[in-house]
Amino acid sequence: MKKIGVLTRDCAGVNAAIRAVVRSASCYNIETLGILRGYQGLIQGDFKILSRSSVSGIINRGGTILKTARSKEFFTGKGQLKAVMNIKKNKIDGLIIIGGNGSLAGAHILASKYSVPVMGVPATIDNDVNGVGMAIGADTAINVALDALDKIRDTATSLERIFVVEVMGRDCGYIASRVALAGGCEDVILPERHFDIRKMSAEIAEGNRRGKVSWIIVVAEGKAKAGDIAKKIRKNTRLETRELVLGHIQRGGSPSAFDRILAARYATYAVEKLRKGETDKCVTLKNEKLDTLPLAKAIQPKDIEINSYYKLIKILT
Q: What is the DSSP letter of 173?
């Protein structure tokens, strides 16, 4: 193997993974091509050579130096053929693809349909890659959201208000459930659970009668909108209620130590496995030991533990 390509999505820790790919590959005299803007860049042949020096100083940076973009074209036969043609034209012997379910689904297509040697590295703030205990970026996203929530609590307590805080999570309540528990929140609204706004409002009103002067509810964006929930609580309780949407700040920020270390371990292991001929796999940790699993399994829906977290949040309210 003389040349590999690396393609990414964006979240904290991805740059640390790119750095590890480039530097571990260079130990085997393997050249690394960075593929700009994800699968769209692969289709357009938008590549650049990455050297040890070009990835210097990026370990602490959020996002991805390779940029990223969604590509509907790649999920067409014509788009895939363009991508494979560029892989062959540039004499790329294998790919490291860093991202979540969408990116890894594309990796599986390249490996299974076109016999392109591919290793996947899980990186997603939702931590919803099946068979993977922790994906790069999830730890940082929780801590970014938690930092904001801690500051909101100061205001909620001082002004005696209810706050509804919306976090990311279209189909998955991983961030919402973890942030709500770590932040000592009173309730959480999750995609995986039914919620009763009247019951929630009654609990708030009863708490207020007992002298509880502030309340924080976390809501995952895929289940409800903070503004709608706040409006209903105001109507039901006649208490001052404000909404806050954290939005894309959760995808950014300097990666935590955990994510930097995880990125280094995952990416280096992916290069090693790709070099030895493994393909159509995703790297993971099992009992603190690095391992791989088939991409076909990794892209299946993941059953994320929610109920025990929700129960604990309510017990501790």
A: -
Are 3-137+255-298 and 141-251 equal in CATH topology? yes
Instruction: Give Cβ neighbours of residue 113 (< 8 Å, ≥ 6 apart).
Output: 80
Task: With H, G, I as helix, E, B as strand and everything else as coil, classify residue 123.
Answer: strand
User: What's the average model confidence in pLDDT over 12-25?
Assistant: 98
Strands 47-50 and 31-35 come out as antiparallel
Q: How big is the chain by its Cα radius of gyration, in Å?
A: 22
CA distances to 75, 127, 131, 133, 160 from 298, rounded to whole Å, are: 18, 12, 6, 11, 45
CATH fold for the domain made of 3-137+255-298: Rossmann fold (3.40.50)
DSSP-based three-state secondary structure for 66: coil
Task: Tell me the C-alpha distance between 120 and 105, whole Å.
Answer: 10
Q: Supply the residues annotated as catalytic.
A: 126
Q: Where are the domains of the chain?
A: 3-137+255-298, 141-251
pLDDT tens, position by position, 100-152: 999 999 999 999 999 999 999 999 999 999 999 999 999 999 999 999 999 99
- In this structure, how many other beta carbons lie within 10 angstroms of the beta carbon of residue 235? 11
- The confidence score (pLDDT) of residue 3 equals 98
Hey, what CATH topology would domain 141-251 get?
Rossmann fold (3.40.50)
Q: Which among 117, 120, 123 has a CA at the least distance from the CA of 4?
A: 117
Across the chain, mean pLDDT equals: 96
8 A C-beta contact, residue 80 and residue 40: no
pTM assigned to the model? 0.95
